[in-house]
TrEMBL record:
A Pfam family the protein falls into: Usp
Protein name: UspA domain-containing protein
InterPro entries: Rossmann-like_a/b/a_fold (IPR014729), UspA (IPR006016)
Source organism superkingdom: Bacteria
Span of domain UspA: 71-120
Taxonomic lineage of the native organism: Bacteria, Bacillati, Actinomycetota, Actinomycetes, Actinomycetales
Amino acid sequence: MAVLLTYCGTEESNAAANAAIAVASKMRTSLLVLLSEDEQLGPDNRDPEGPLWEMLGATDIPFEIHRSGPGEQISEQVIKLATELECELVVLGLVGKVGGNWTLGPQAQNILLNSPCPVLTATAN
């Protein structure tokens, strides 16, 4: 059993990583990280995974890294991994407000509606 974090290098992903690490620590379980293949270098050409490695390096929680595969929707990979590894919780970052209204993208919506376990969402705000 583990906590599954989806991570793509955004501020929302960093908020989700902080939440996932805190929950995994409290639950005394491991952390699985699914890195999105859609990562790109930030505006200052920094590695988008840099903050994640810093967070993981500051904890003693056992973790395992998985990379998303090409051509498959990230939400489908999350659901598949959470099912196969019998995860206790999925943690993902949400962009949240667009034009003053809360909205969910199709990937987040699919995870929320079809996850085999509870889902915790985090925002950067």
